[in-house]
Amino acid sequence: MAGVAPVRRVSRPRADAVRNRERIVTAAREMFVESGAQVPLDEIARRAGVGNATLYRNFPERDDLVREVVLSLTARITERAVEATEQESDPFEAVRRFTHAAADERVGALCPMLDGDFDKNHPDLLAERSRLEEAVQELVERAQTAGRMRADVGAGDLMIAVSQLTRPLPGTACPSMDRFVHRHLQVLLDGLEAPARSELPGSAATLEGLRRESGCTS
Amino acid sequence: MAGVAPVRRVSRPRADAVRNRERIVTAAREMFVESGAQVPLDEIARRAGVGNATLYRNFPERDDLVREVVLSLTARITERAVEATEQESDPFEAVRRFTHAAADERVGALCPMLDGDFDKNHPDLLAERSRLEEAVQELVERAQTAGRMRADVGAGDLMIAVSQLTRPLPGTACPSMDRFVHRHLQVLLDGLEAPARSELPGSAATLEGLRRESGCTS
Amino acid sequence: MAGVAPVRRVSRPRADAVRNRERIVTAAREMFVESGAQVPLDEIARRAGVGNATLYRNFPERDDLVREVVLSLTARITERAVEATEQESDPFEAVRRFTHAAADERVGALCPMLDGDFDKNHPDLLAERSRLEEAVQELVERAQTAGRMRADVGAGDLMIAVSQLTRPLPGTACPSMDRFVHRHLQVLLDGLEAPARSELPGSAATLEGLRRESGCTS
Amino acid sequence: MAGVAPVRRVSRPRADAVRNRERIVTAAREMFVESGAQVPLDEIARRAGVGNATLYRNFPERDDLVREVVLSLTARITERAVEATEQESDPFEAVRRFTHAAADERVGALCPMLDGDFDKNHPDLLAERSRLEEAVQELVERAQTAGRMRADVGAGDLMIAVSQLTRPLPGTACPSMDRFVHRHLQVLLDGLEAPARSELPGSAATLEGLRRESGCTS
DNA sequence: CATGAATGAGGGTTCATTCAT
DNA sequence: CATGAATGAACCCTCATTCAT
Question: Is A194 near chain B, with CB under 8 Å?
Fold first, then answer.
């Protein structure tokens, strides 16, 4: 009867368990973005509507949960970079578009998550970051090659500056802030557009180089 | 006056008490900047070389200590603004100078301190912030009046952008970061220099307006 | 019988269910002996190769599992007592043989299991203990009747002393300990051999009496 | 004014703090003896009448508290050994006396405390154990030299056997047990009295040797 | 006024037990 | 009947804040 073996998946992943996991990650992303990286895990569990131990079953250490959120955010941002490259004909317009899109995806929320003893060299992270790296590098190089973007900055500079400028402000204190973020990005982008108006100290930051030093790329 | 018991002024600010207070504030500033805004107060006391209760005598609640540090940092930054205005002949060069100086004063470290239930409308804060406001406003207006800085940004935009770009990265993980901060500021400044290269969404942020909304100015 | 639906006996004790139960008990005994009485039930289930809920189906409360292990250990020790009585001609040699055999069966591991709210008066336990009681009583009485064992001790004294002397030492810290246990038993046995060298305080402990008081016989 | 410097002890140990520490240790000893080594620290604090954090201030890790109790118990037992040596003319009677006294001091409670990751090689422990070692060794050697105790056992055998025979039974289930303990010790002692009635397997356990292997001496 | 000690309210985590597939 | 997932109570520990010397 070979070939007719019933397709018994080893253990079907139980619909509700999957939903729970997703609800936890969603709640975590929301709360990390809103309230910073120190939100009590119990509150995330409550917001997700599950018991705290369920959270621990899915993410035995706090880092595991943080990493999951970082991964999903990173993936979404990579998508925006690819989109921008593909859909925008002017290469510096692509950089602008990506930058504003990254802000909307809350790229700035990543930084505070990388706190403490978070393992920045976890294989999954490295892999996902490679994809982001490649996508942004592509974006930046095109603009520079076309002479539309100053040549003395790297993809790393762009990512860090954008992340910082879009970092959530403490507490939920400044919802109004969002309105200003895009202004600041626009100013920064104006500073990035060729021709350069001033000289920069140090040398261009590459994502690769940043990763080597600290892993704080994104 | 020999022979007359020295008049005991009602509240003579005993020399050592004053020194203690200063040592506490200094220790707090250092540790907030180095290790983030969550350092245990006991550690600050230890670093200052005083008992924890002494710290509490001077600053009954944690917020009181944080506020003191914020005030002193703010004051130092105001000084830099004044200095830049006075000592730099070109008004946009003054803006550049102030911006880099503010970074060196760790203006970015202010943000993480404003966490939680910190009262951002405390009279002392408002007063100190007024002084900063005035100084930066002056700086910006001069540059704009001289046609050296784009007119569609406000002092609030400058302060927020600079604060964000210089925020410490999580942990002490990225000491290398410091090396890049001034690059990013320089790019931002290039974007601020007249003539404007793009239009900005929203309207210019004034420090006054920001204060009204959220108090997150600095 | 082809074509005829097999008669479903009302409670056929499905072969695999029986095997599961046995595997659980075995795993539990091993882990209790190896790692103490506090091993998480999930680990026992894992070692047994079944899901934790299967364990709970068979043993609704932790105590039910512990009791099963206690019962099986008790039964094995009873067997040793019977063996010793039957196979050893000299009645005190029988006592010696049983004592060392009980040690090898890990009689000492029983004590730590009786912790907490374990119900020491469960009918099954009482029944099994009766059998042990009878067997050891027989062993002891024979030796005493033959004048080979001092008369002022009871079967209860023997059981308790042997259990205590063979209790596992904390952690797995002292594997070397095993080497000494038989020495101590031998000394104890020398003290039990007639004629008595000293007077004993109190009166002989019978298993029956101990059961009445506390159930800690075994 | 040299020589008249006021004797300002660096920090007088505050009477109530000392009392608290003692109350904690006492409560711990009682609860360890009564309920085993796993009693929640919070309960010990409650029994001692202090907040849990006070306990943690005095004993930052659980081990630190356990060690303190072990040290004090060990010291008391050493005292009994010295007493017995000094005050009993017949050297084997001294062994008997010490053995029963050690039981009354709850020497058996030590074993369960040495659980888990307890550091058995802490300097303080080693020191205290050396004193015990010396005292018991002395006691045993005198009896053996006088021909009153069998020569094929060591001080280590005595200590382990006595510890085991007096270990508290699980829970507080068997208060009645205490009544029997001295009977069993008496039997053991009869087995230790010269002349030897049987041969012992293995070789005599010395406290020194035991320490080397596992630290479970007492 | 300065100090070390004390406090109790959480946060992180584990585990016996129950539930849904 | 078997399973993995879910649950909540309880433990350990930290830290802002208060108290006693």
Answer: no
The span from the CA of C177 to the CA of C103, in Å, is: 12
Per DSSP, the residues of D131-195 read HHHHHHHHHHHHHHHTT-B-TT--HHHHHHHHHHHTPPPSTT--TTHHHHHHHHHHHHHHHHBSS
A150: left (phi over 0), alpha (psi -120 to 50) or beta: beta
Nearest to B137 by CA among B197, B69, B217, B71: B217
Give me the residues of B, 20-39, that contact A with CB < 8 A.
38
Residue pLDDT, tens place only, D176-195: 567 789 999 999 999 999 89
Residues of chain D with pLDDT under 70: 1-13, 116, 170-177, 205-218
Comparing every residue's Cα with the C1' atom of nucleotide E6, the nearest one is: D54
> Which residue's CA is nearest to the C1' of nucleotide E12?
A41
Domains in chain D, CATH or no CATH each: 14-60 (1.10.10.60), 62-213 (1.10.357.10)
* CA-only gyration radius of chain C, Å: 20
What φ, ψ does residue C193 adopt, rounded to 5°?
-70, 140
Give per-residue pLDDT as tens, A71-119.
999 999 999 999 999 999 999 999 999 999 999 998 988 877 777 677 8
How large a percentage of chain B has pLDDT more than 70?
82
| Among D115, D160, D187, beta carbon nearest to C180 | D160
Partners of A193 in beta bridges: A149
pLDDT band at A175 (very low <50, low <70, confident <90, very high): low
In the prediction, which pLDDT does D140 show? Answer: 97
CA dist B86 and B193 (Å) reads 20
**Predicted confidence (pLDDT) per residue in B52-105, tens digit:** 999 999 999 988 999 999 999 999 999 999 999 999 999 999 999 999 999 999
From the centroid of its chain, how far is CA D67? 11
Q: Is the CB of B53 under 7 A from strand E?
A: yes
Distance, in Å, from the CA atom of D201 to the CA atom of D187, rounded to the nearest integer, reads: 19
Question: How far B10 CA sits from the closest chain A CA (Å)?
Answer: 41
Distance, CA of B99 to CA of B80 (rounded, Å): 9
DSSP for residue D206: P
Strand F nucleotides where any atom sits below 7 Å of a protein CB: 1-21
Chains C and D physically touch (3 or more Cβ atom pairs below 8 Å): yes
Contact between the CB of A4 and strand E at under 7 Å: no
Residue type, D176: S
Chain centroid to CA B189: 19
